[in-house]
Amino acid sequence: MLNLLAIIVSLTAALAWLNQRLIRLPTTIGVMAIALVLSWGLQGLAWLGLPGLEARAADWVARFDFNELVMEGLLSLLLFAGALHIDLDRLRRYRWSIGFLATLGVVISTLAIGAATYGLLRLAGVELSWLYCLVFGALISPTDPIAVLGILRKAGAPVDLELRIVGESLFNDGVAVVVFTLLLGAAAGSEALTPGHAGALFLQEAGGGIALGLAVGGVAYALMRSIDEYRIEVLVSLALVLGGYALALQLHVSGPIAMVVAGLLVGNKARESAMSETTRAQLDAFWELIDELLNTLLFVLLGLEVLLIPFAGWQLWVAAGLIPVLLGVRLVTIGLPVMLLRETLGFRRGSARILTWGGLRGGISVALALAIPSGEARDVLLTITYLIVLFSILVQGLTIGRLVARLLAPE
């Protein structure tokens, strides 16, 4: 395992250097693009009759359990790091719109995308059950702010738009995982999909996640307040994330939601009354570095996953048909709270379009697709998921900056 880790870290460093030196794309998008080109080059060699390198690379990539790595490792750290820098007072101002998008918005998106997926697959001659189509709707609904956040800042996007995208993504990741778990259990036949069962599971996962997040965040706050030594306080925050997420898995409550709540608590209450200036600076620097390094590593692996995913022409057309559906559903769910709360919250001109195009899909969608049991459903949905994620990151991610500049330019 140490050899595998050494190889991926070394490769990530090399690709990040190459991007910074020659290409100068946003780091996460740049390393993923280079990894994709590298993967396609290896596949090209195999097509030319030299399969040895591709086979060895695919065998190496297969040793990484992408689902386990993301869902039981990186996700906890990334969500905590994201929540740590959210101003809770400012977040409260957008609580209704963010709450709508992270709950009803996820449900509406799951149903609409599931229905579109069912119809497009039937047109392609693929019979997939309605429940598995809803599973796909749930896994593709959560948005990933990581790649777009740096671009928005570089383009000079207002803080309120950054807060909306990040705040929504932090919470809808947790809710979407709960919905996905419920639907996958029903599709696989292990659980009954009844309103009572769904409500109980949601209460256990989401309510339990909130309670656990408050508990572990409260313990961390008390420990930090009792001392003034930034090294130990940073270590406490790391223990909170790793230990808290492991505990969430054991208790069968939502680890993502727990980490978001704990991050908000530490990032606001503990920052305000339990940390010295030195601790604040060191804690921020530590988690910003963790955030950047793990995201870069994640996007390299995302680019290399193409070596393991089988592609067929009809899957490309289904994915292409679903992309406008995803964007349309997001525009509707974004547009509704923007219209209703325009006067109250003072949304800017073009906010709905920026928030729609800025809702990228990322590694969590691929990780959830990999959690589907082996079989035809997984093969179909994993490939479609990967294609949509590629479009989202490479097309939306590389054009959102220009959209922000154009829509928010002074008239």
TrEMBL record:
Keywords: Antiport, Cell membrane, Ion transport, Membrane, Sodium, Sodium transport, Transmembrane, Transmembrane helix, Transport. The chain crosses the membrane at residues 26-48, 69-86, 98-121, 128-151, 171-189, 201-224, 318-342, 354-372, 384-405. This is CPA1 family monovalent cation:H+ antiporter. One of its GO terms (molecular function) is sodium:proton antiporter activity. Residues 11-405 form the Cation/H+ exchanger transmembrane domain. InterPro entries: Cation/H_exchanger_CPA1, Cation/H_exchanger_TM. It is a multi-pass membrane protein. Pfam families: Na_H_Exchanger. One of its GO terms (biological process) is sodium ion import across plasma membrane. Its main location: membrane. It is found in: Cell membrane. One of its GO terms (cellular component) is plasma membrane. Gene3D superfamilies: 6.10.140.1330. Belongs to the monovalent cation:proton antiporter 1 (CPA1) transporter (TC 2.A.36) family.
